[in-house]
Amino acid sequence: PLVSASWDSSVLSSGINAEYGTYSEEEKLAFVDWINFRLEKDEQLKTLRMLPIAEDGEALFKALHNGILMNKLVNDSVNDTVDERALNMPDANGKLSIFKIQENQTLALNSCLAIGCYVISIGAQDLIDAKPHLCLGLLWQIIRIGLMAKITLKDCPGLRALLDEYESLEQLLSMSPEEILCRWVNYQLNKVGCKRTVKNFTSDIKDSEVYAHLLCAVCPEDKGPIGLEPLNIQDLTKRAELVLKNAEAIEARSFVRARDIVSGNQKLNLAFVANLFNMYPAMDDAGEFEIIEETREEKIYVDDLLDEFECALAQESREDLAMRNWMNSLGATPRVKYIYEDLKDGLAILQLFDKIKPGCVDWQKRVNTPPFKALGGKMKQIENCNYAIELGKELSFVLVGIDGNNLHDGDKLTLALVWQMMRFYTLQLITHDGKVLKDNEIIAWCNEKITGAGKDSNFSNFKDASLANSRAIVDLIEAIRPGHINYDLLTAASNDEEKFLNAKYAITMARKIGARIFALPEDIADVNPKMMMTVFACIMSVGFAKDQMK
């Protein structure tokens, strides 16, 4: 059946609906503004007349109905996640079959998982039905990931200036983006002589004084100066509006309206500050300032810390990134930012064990929870890490020479445990008659499917150099879902760029048919055997599900 891309939004009420739940009108308006701004140059969306989205009524949910917009927004937050050539687009009459819409929404959900969104109790049909509270919740996760992505030492080395003289780089790495943004605001306020400090983005910003001074501090010379005239206004709503006009003058007005500041809307104010940071960090370069500890015999310069700094940043490889996104997609709390720093207390790892094998963690008797006291806290964390190693061994993980101290110290061996957890989770998707399949059995199954479809892209192992062209992956997808692959889009894979394009298309098409893949295109182009195994196993799980339906 064909349904119009112009979906009937009469099923929704204005804000509250018994079936679809309650949602925030303020958030809806903020997200509409952001989407219109970020995607305004997208020619496809303009051609389809999907932009700009109107603020009134249910225009946002109508725009999300066919899955195109959600995929575009994922790409805006994390570039190259979705190969947009794979999107199903309406025909000349604006029609798109419900099956094609379902594919777009399946792709959107699996792409959200791939960038680390926690997608629970949301299916493709929920997005097709445009259930407001679910759509807004998912939109916020996508937008938040994009906003917070560059609040790191790697992207802004000047963040070192936010450390107190006795704090270490490790402490900065362990801070949440919200904590870093609070420190950044306070740093900027101090620069312009404002005595106010913030500990949150709710009550501490309601009177707009902090924002007025913050905009003065970060305003670039070619756009300023910005004054403090709004603070002469006693009415807080009018004052907030004047402050936002100052933000508009430097093109940084986003997410919040005057009432959102006055009411202390935490989510939207956090987004406003994060976007302001991304546009105008106004931080000294890491090499231009020094840390001086007057109580010590020697002065310690930033240059002396560069080795430690670069080591901390270099630790996250593409493999680490894929595993971090996998952990976050399972709901690790708090979110994992740096795989080695954020697992040191063992709690995130234990949460993941409970996800991959429900009920295996004894939370009452074996797990130590925060707050961890200065005296004895380290031992409590190591006990958690030792328990995680114990659970790994119960699941037959190979953990020779690894103990809780390795995890607590942020050792590279941490990755060995996380990888085996991810592998265990992935292989559970293709358990056959209660038996977990081995690598050679996965390869044999894939080759049989590929050959049965009349293709000749068989491979011998997950290190096979021929896998770099992605042919075996797309052929397997075609074998499982005939007619899905557009072979005209594949390149000869004669260079790195062409290999990347093939890999991005292959991953996107795999997600589109339902495979939950966390590998990056580079993992395929470089033939990373670990991630290759997960790619084929996840596609195989889709084939298993199809066979069971038959």
Structural class by sheet pairing and helices: mainly alpha
Please, how many helices?
24
Order of helices and strands: EEEHHHHEHHHHHHHHHHHHHHHHHHHH
In whole angstroms, the N-to-C terminal distance is: 22 Å
Quaternary structure:
single chain
Task: Describe the global form.
Answer: globular
The overall strand count is 4
What strand order characterises the main sheet?
Answer: 1-4
Strand residue content: under 5%
What average pLDDT do the residues reach? 90
Largest sheet: 2 strands, antiparallel
Radius of gyration: 25 Å
Uncertain stretches: 1-20, 286-309, 311-315
> How helical, in percent, are the residues?
40-55%
How would you characterize this protein structure?
It is built from 24 helices and 4 strands. By secondary structure, the protein is mostly helical. α4 runs parallel beside α5 (98-114), α4 (68-77) runs parallel beside α7 (132-148) and α19 (414-428) packs parallel to α24 (529-549). It is globular.
What's the SSE blueprint?
Elements: E1 2-4, E2 16-17, E3 21-22, H1 25-38, H2 43-47, H3 59-64, H4 68-77, E4 95-97, H5 98-114, H6 124-128, H7 132-148, H8 169-173, H9 177-191, H10 209-218, H11 236-249, H12 258-263, H13 266-279, H14 306-314, H15 318-329, H16 347-356, H17 377-394, H18 404-408, H19 414-428, H20 439-452, H21 471-480, H22 496-512, H23 521-525, H24 529-549
Antiparallel strand pairs: 1-4, 2-3
